[in-house]
């Protein structure tokens, strides 16, 4: 089990658990932290987050919504991201 700390925005300093099998998006929402999402399939980009620290694995996602120049800066899609260590992330709050 890994811990994920949100470092800015409405949910600044919130911490939630993620076991590495479920996505960041699902783990956050299960624990009451609402972050934006649309498709849950890596195609809309609404769940884009930036990992400030830690290791993670990306599932398949569209290069149209997550181009290479953003990938190298550690942007990722929460619906397709699985922690491989504790993480610190920047996340936009959502109400969906
Ligand atoms: S919810 Fe659409 S890309 Fe993650």
Automatic annotation (TrEMBL):
Q: Cross-referenced Pfam families, in alphabetical order?
A: Fer2
Which residue ranges traverse the bilayer? none
Please provide the record's keywords in A-Z order: 2Fe-2S, Electron transport, Iron, Iron-sulfur, Metal-binding, Transport
Similarity field: Belongs to the 2Fe2S plant-type ferredoxin family.
Which InterPro entries does the UniProt entry name for this protein?
2Fe-2S_ferredoxin-like_sf (IPR036010), 2Fe-2S_ferredoxin-type (IPR001041), 2Fe2S_fd_BS (IPR006058), Beta-grasp_dom_sf (IPR012675)
Please report the name of this protein according to its UniProt entry.
2Fe-2S iron-sulfur cluster binding domain-containing protein
Q: Write out the GO MF terms.
A: 2 iron, 2 sulfur cluster binding; metal ion binding
- Record has Iron-sulfur as a keyword: yes
Cofactors required: [2Fe-2S] cluster
């Amino acid at each position: 089990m890994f811990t994920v700390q949100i470092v800015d925005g409405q949910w600044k300093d919130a911490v939630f658990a993620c076991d590495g099998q479920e996505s960041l998006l699902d783990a956050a929402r299960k624990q009451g932290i609402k972050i934006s999402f649309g498709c849950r399939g890596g195609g809309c980009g609404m769940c884009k987050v930036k990992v400030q620290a830690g290791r993670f694995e990306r599932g398949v996602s569209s290069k149209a919504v997550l181009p290479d120049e953003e990938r190298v800066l550690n942007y990722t899609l929460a619906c397709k991201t699985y922690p491989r260590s504790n993480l610190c992330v920047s996340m936009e709050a959502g109400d969906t």
